[in-house]
Specification:
By secondary structure, the protein is mostly helical. It is 80% helix and 0% strand. The radius of gyration is 21 Å and the shape is rod-shaped.
């Protein structure tokens, strides 16, 4: 690879990694999108790692940022999704034991 090709090299995997990470972060706020968040997060991490490996083999400097940000965003999306799932479940269980029980009885008697 000559100098011009190294300079103008477009990293598709790094771009996809960051894009999937951003989409996973946005979707992690939606409760029913958790499976999609996990899939996009894993894809973001895998693509980022593959791109980092490719960059280290080609010895291109300064093009690791998108791959690293994709890995970080994918990881954060998965962690945020898990925490919100756990806290949502805890909140729901407390709601059912506390004030929410009479709401269920109303619907059953309707």
């Amino acid at each position: 690879m000559n100098e011009i090709e190294k300079k103008n090299n477009f990293r598709l995997m790094g771009t996809l990694s960051m894009t999937f990470g951003i989409i996973a972060m946005v979707l992690s706020c939606i409760p029913f999108a958790r499976p999609l968040v996990v899939l996009l997060g894993i894809a973001s991490i895998v693509l980022g790692v593959i791109d980092l490996d490719k960059i280290s083999k080609d010895q291109i400097k300064g093009s690791r940022a998108m791959a690293i940000s994709g890995i970080v965003l994918g990881s954060l999306a998965i962690i945020l999704s898990m925490f919100s799932n756990i806290f949502g479940g805890i909140f729901f269980m407390k709601w059912m034991r506390g004030n929410g029980g009479h709401m269920i009885q109303r619907f059953r008697n309707f």
